[in-house]
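Entry type: protein chain
Record version: 2
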Amino acid sequence: MKYRAHKFKLRMTEDQDKLELFLNSLDGEVVAVIPNVTPFPANYVDFVLVVEKVG
């Protein structure tokens, strides 16, 4: 199996629709969605890594 990792920049409060469109546009199976949590100055997610199994 081969895997592909995608970096998807987002603002958690605004980009839910963009993330949904991105995930639905992938050809393979989504294996994991890994958030990057930034602790300073306040906790927030600035991007997620999406791991896709391609076939």
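Comment: Residues 16-25 form the longest helix (10 residues).
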